[in-house]
Amino acid sequence: MSHKIFIPRDTTTLALGGERVVTAVLKEAQARKLDIEIVRNGSRGISWLEPLIEVETATGRVAYGPVEPHDIAALFDTGFLNGNASHRLSLGDPEEIPYLKKQQRLTFARAGVIDPVSIEDYKAHGGFKGLDKSLTLTGQDIVDEVKASGLRGRGGAAFPTGIKWQTVHDCSADQKYIVCNADEGDSGTFADRLVMEADPLMLIEGMIISGLAVGATQGYIYLRSEYPVAHQVMNEAIANAYASGYLGGDIQGSGKAFNLEVRLGAAAYICGEETSLLESLEGKRGLVRFKPPLPAIEGLFGKPTVVNNVLSLAAVPFIMDKGSKAYADCGMGRSRGTLPFQLAGNLKQGGLVELAFGPTLRELIDDFGGGTESGLPMRAIQVGGPLGAYLPESQWDTPLDYEAFSAIGAVLGHGGIVVFDESVDMTEQARFSMEFCVAESCGKCTPCRIGSTRGVEVIDKIRSGNNVEANLALLDDLCETMIDGSLCAMGSMTPIPVKSAFQYFSEDIALANASSSVQAEAK
Ligand SMILES: Cc1cc2nc3c(=O)[nH]c(=O)nc-3n(C[C@H](O)[C@H](O)[C@H](O)COP(=O)(O)O)c2cc1C
Ligand code: SF4
């Protein structure tokens, strides 16, 4: 009898020695003359338990993790192929691991369960049902369903996806495009990568449905060039989708067409901004375009274009299969559905947590984070990537909802959450945020290009105790100019982390001053 073993092929698992685990399993099975089949699945997103390997048994799957190559012989000895729970790494039924069980997985339901590139496996787990239904509908019907779901763009700005699609739908043009923003440049975010490495056919299905909705026949995935594994998996999945007639000139005999390609990004944060992305996709330098015209009206090569984040497009198959109501029933206020929160930074249990909008930041961290990795108390949490606010404990009871975050001057963005312990120097973090803008500004407008450079200089003066009060007022002025005068969110949002660091953690100014005078004396 052949034993089926699942060992993820995603980036996190590979970084933690996944390939060596595969080699060790193969070697051990050969030595024991056991017939095994290894399926290279994607990750379930429980990063702190990777490499998490699972075996298929008569009563379901059993998980073990985190597994290292030197554990393999003992796992075989204790009968892990039959799901024996006596080994210390045994985690039992993976679906019952509390970290997973407490989630509401709509988008990530198949992640880690299936072989990411297998059409049969995808279909056996509900794949392509949303597309099958969409093929029977008009474009307007699909747009209406997505509107009714309340889905808002998951790439950061939270713009209603259905409204964007309506604009493209209503344009008449000889060619329209679907562009998937898979640049994922935000610090602490990895949900897009997990989709592409664990369930790429779901993204492909979402893009085809988007094409049917607006009348676009060509799609591009603009993929972060630092994601070689996602690149490989995406391309394999696209090839399989073509081979089985889901992509190409006649989708499942419907007479409708959709073609799809992956294009590698230019390794610049600003290339995630949609207009800069389009410039880059056209082969030019990633410079932000003036709006209007909106990309929905004049986008790629001047044609009407849907630009959506991976998670926005990946949510669409669920909406079309289960209905907009099933999606809209989750969430709070105007934030409907689920958001895959990404826990990173100084936490014991980093990983992906998909939940309906609504719990507080504190609940999320307490229920899933497992405390800091360092063991020191938590001090600050940055939510929403490098342009998001640093939140002190007094703000951790804010519900995870777009409007509730905006009411406290923060952003949920892409759902990235980075935790800092009490050893952090928040004036240094403020400097880092401003310096990030210096490095990543596209240079098109003065408040961002010059303002960020002057901002770093002013922060340095504050940190070294030079005329602190006057320089804090100057920094405030500079931030207002960046907010009001920048062409895009890179310049207008950089003040968010900078201002929050000084507002909520002002006691660190005195510490930075003291340490700089000690250093000056030592010289
Ligand atoms: C500086 C900057 C970087 C961005 N990076 C990304 C990114 O990496 N991925 C993404 O989906 N959106 C990113 N965005 C947001 C996009 O401009 C755009 O709003 C998004 O792709 C639209 O898709 P959605 O409506 O599905 O969110 C960025 C925006 C800015 C201003
Ligand atoms: S704000 Fe910065 S990144 Fe955006 S257009 Fe201006 S210079 Fe470019």
UniProtKB/TrEMBL annotation:
Keyword Metal-binding: yes
Family named by the database record: Belongs to the complex I 51 kDa subunit family.
Domain NADH-ubiquinone oxidoreductase 51kDa subunit iron-sulphur binding, first and last residues per copy: 427-472
InterPro entries on file: NADH-UbQ_OxRdtase_51kDa_CS, Nuo51_FMN-bd, Nuo51_FMN-bd_sf, Nuop51_4Fe4S-bd, Nuop51_4Fe4S-bd_sf
PANTHER family (UniProt xref): NADH-QUINONE OXIDOREDUCTASE SUBUNIT F (PTHR43578:SF3)
Cofactor: FMN; [4Fe-4S] cluster
Keywords linked to the UniProt accession: 4Fe-4S, Iron, Iron-sulfur, Metal-binding
Protein name: NADH-quinone oxidoreductase subunit F
Any Pfam family: NADH_4Fe-4S
Superkingdom of source: Bacteria
Organism: Neptunomonas japonica JAMM 1380
One Gene Ontology molecular-function label: 4 iron, 4 sulfur cluster binding
